[in-house]
Amino acid sequence: MMFGRTPQLPAPEQALKGRPTPEFDVPSRHTVLGNPLLGPYPDGLETADFGMGCFWGAERTFWQTDGVWTTLVGYQGGYTENPAYEEACSGLTGHTEAVRVVFDPSVVSYEQLLKVFWENHDPTQGFRQGNDVGTQYRSAIYTHSPAQAAAAEASREAYQKVLTYSGHSTITTEILPADTRPFWPAEPHHQQYLDKNPGGYCGIGGTGVSCPVGVAKTD
């Protein structure tokens, strides 16, 4: 499915079965921000989930954003329960590499996080990001409320306009509800990978086109 062929998502019946419980424990705290990785999170915070290529660089982009309380990486949008990294990379789980962003909306809005998302990868590439090829690198937004879904759709429309004007192709980002697409945390060594390995591979890069923020700027 991965080598020498065009990547494609498996049907549910083709996906690996996975396992009922994870084979590892998620670290308790973020190595940079110092806050817990797993919920329940403090009152007033909100959660956002994004897939934008290799999750190592995506996670660092968000933990460097003011108002972000914690981040963790994992697998989302597929079928396999508690997948391993090698399984997700095989293309047989249906997941994309994702970063969960827990944020304080009084400091940074969801719309501002969408701007970070759009500008730090190329959302027009389908099942790839640059030299990283596979369904696990597809662009995705998994929403946690109707308000997030509406904001994500509006931002996609707005960004498509400026991308088209700049000569780029059609956005392939999937926007789907998170409640039916569980987020499975990745292995401990993937969490805050670029903090533990400052010279490590990043793999994400934007189009160089600025994204309008907010519905009012879509025209």
From TrEMBL:
One protein family per Pfam = PMSR
Q: Write out the ranges of the annotated region (Disordered).
A: 1-28
Annotated catalysed reactions: L-methionyl-[protein] + [thioredoxin]-disulfide + H2O = L-methionyl-(S)-S-oxide-[protein] + [thioredoxin]-dithiol; [thioredoxin]-disulfide + L-methionine + H2O = L-methionine (S)-S-oxide + [thioredoxin]-dithiol
Keyword Oxidoreductase tagged: yes
Peptide methionine sulphoxide reductase MsrA domain location is 48-202
Which top class of enzyme applies to this chain? Answer: oxidoreductase
Molecular function per GO: peptide-methionine (S)-S-oxide reductase activity
The annotated active site, in chain numbering, is C54
Instruction: Name the keywords, alphabetized.
Output: Oxidoreductase
The enzyme's E.C. designation = 1.8.4.11
Report whether Oxidoreductase shows up as a keyword of the record: yes
Query: What does the sequence similarity comment in the record state about its family?
Result: Belongs to the MsrA Met sulfoxide reductase family.
NCBIfam families reported for this sequence: msrA
Cited HAMAP family: MsrA
Q: What does this protein do?
A: Has an important function as a repair enzyme for proteins that have been inactivated by oxidation. Catalyzes the reversible oxidation-reduction of methionine sulfoxide in proteins to methionine.
Name this protein carries in UniProt: Peptide methionine sulfoxide reductase MsrA
State the encoding gene: msrA
